[in-house]
Amino acid sequence: MVSESPFHDAKLYKRHLRGWLSYNFASEVFAIASLTLFMPICLEQFARDNGYLMPDRTEPCFLSTNETDGLSIAKATAPCVVKLGWVWVDTASFSLYVKSIGVALQALVVISMGGIADHPPHRKKILLICAYAGAIATLLFLILPSTSPFWLLCVPLAVLANIGFGASIVAMNAYLPTLAQESEEVVLAKSELDKHAESQPARSAVQDTDRTSDADEAEDPLLPRESANSDPDERLATLNATYNATLSRMTSRISSLGIALGYLSGISLLLLALIPVTKLGGSTFSLRLAISMSGIWWAIFTLPAAVWLPGVSSKASTPEWGDESTQRVRDGEEWSTGREILNAWKRLGGMLRWREMKKLKNTFQYLAAWFLLSDGFTTVISTAVLFGKIVLHMSPSALILVSILAPTSGILGSLIMPALQKRFAWSNIRVLVTLIVFASLIPVYGCIGFLPFFQHNLKFGGLTTQGEMYGLAVVFGFTYGAFSGYSRAFYADLIPPGEESRWYGLFSITDKTSSFVGPMVIGIIADLTGNIRYGFFFVVVMILAAIPILLVIDADRGRRDAREYVYRMTGLVADLSEGDNKSVILFDFHGKANQRWVAKQGCDNYWTLQNEANGTFLSVEGDVVDDAVLVGTKTGMKWVLQQDAMNPGYYRIIDPMTVLYVALSSKEEDPEPGTNLALEKYAIEPQQRWKFEEIL
């Protein structure tokens, strides 16, 4: 049993965790029941109820049996097409095209809301607004019969529901890194790490030396490669590794628990929806009713999240919600939604610059793999139901059973894989690659269905019978359940703290961009070939292509780079004031000469820092004492550059004579431009950690 930590508010943490899990329970029902099963079938049936049989395109595809119930009895098994404007579209492709439109618009919304959702008081608002917008859109399906002349309103309703779900999930995922950081195990590991770091004296040798610069000092690379100044502390490194491992494990555990609860909610609703769908013979009305039931469930179980998730009132009482070294929270009176939307698009462009991508190389490598994986998995999900309905001629009740088996198996996958990982000490990368290999076997199995041996001789295998669909649902569910938890948790380790919504937004954009491509390609394949089975070849390529990318990711380096990351266009840097050409202050980055410093190491291994604008050195005017303000002087002080053991990408700048550290004079979490630099005694706070960046 882990002892209670004085820094951990267990009651408050459990409240936040329950709020987050409750939204998993509320929202995943839409993904499992509506988005995966009922929505594709319902949209296809809306189109079929208004379509005509090929090749003449004069005979309706369905007979009307009840005007309020919609059209439900097929007249023939010939291909069915519907006319949209002047274009005839296959009814299966219609469903895929609607989904493509939805995910494309969802990406636009997610980009725009990234900066707003990173502002803690607005994150909860964004989640609730998007959740209820999506829930209401699903409810409105109940009052839109397929016989209505306005049946095409199903398109904006489906798109709005898709947008609401996707945008709310981005806001929900943004809570995940902080939930892991505030778990009791992680808090205790961090506390032990901090205590040990605070107890460590400066390791640099203090030598009697003149404070003026030596004439024979030579210019070296910006940072020391190896010297007595940066001797590593093995105990500190061990504690740091323990903290990282604990954080990764808790992130995966929380994520997997959310996936399991989400699947449980989806299964529960599918069992409820099975009653009306079976009783009404799988009519269009029964499908609309099932979609509306998911909207009711979504709306009701979002209420606990609205109560328990942290919002405006929690900010002052729970400063843990946001990393103190990176959080960029503006005061309420300065907030502007329009400006944040504009800045979100500017920031996206900046994040995708090559310079920024190099800083987070492993993060972007994972996003590249995620693009392929999400496309493969999403395409399997979105086309499986249509494949079962159109190719295998499965009834709606049979498809519901398939959709129940998959998430049921997914619960097992999301709970069993973390246990196996712990038992065999597998890395997250190894778990993901294993799951991907298993997932790729499913579309491969579908591809062999083209072989005449399976179609004519054996009449079984290659996904040519309905019974095989049930078995593959179990395999895919187990794999996808585990994959969903690990993909989200692994990404949490690779994103900069304090910018969770923005980076999970990019994660979602990558997902939705590929999800837009996959169904669109499958739709085109179905239109050109008349056989949706050909899409399996596309899926196999997309899934397997991700494995080489995943294998070159350095998770430890990626985690470190993310914690050290400072977005250059908005970062504050050491600046020689242009006002008096003397004061050294913190200021917004603009790249001029007064923000560039030349680091030179002398033969005594000490360093000087000279400003490029006027040649003055970082120094103190007067006595070198605690709280002395730093300025630019003609004669430079000598400094020790000590690599920070907790964050190796940062350095501490130390005066070797007094063992005082260069720090910000302000202790605010979000220092304002114009803050002076000063000398201080050692402190663990990030105000004493500096990042050196080479200017090319």
UniProtKB/TrEMBL annotation:
One of its GO terms (biological process) is amino acid transmembrane export from vacuole. It comes from the Eukaryota. Coiled coil: none annotated. The keyword Disulfide bond does not apply. The keyword Cell membrane does not apply. Its main location: membrane. Residues 194-234 are annotated as: Disordered. Residues 593-677 form the Ricin B lectin domain. It is a multi-pass membrane protein. Keywords: Amino-acid transport, Autophagy, Membrane, Transmembrane, Transmembrane helix, Transport, Vacuole. The chain crosses the membrane at residues 21-41, 94-114, 126-144, 150-176, 257-277, 289-309, 367-392, 398-420, 432-454, 469-491, 503-526, 532-553. It is found in: Vacuole membrane. One of its GO terms (cellular component) is vacuolar membrane. Belongs to the ATG22 family. Vacuolar effluxer which mediate the efflux of amino acids resulting from autophagic degradation. The release of autophagic amino acids allows the maintenance of protein synthesis and viability during nitrogen starvation. This is Autophagy-related protein. It comes from Steccherinum ochraceum. The lineage of its organism: Eukaryota, Fungi, Dikarya, Basidiomycota, Agaricomycotina.
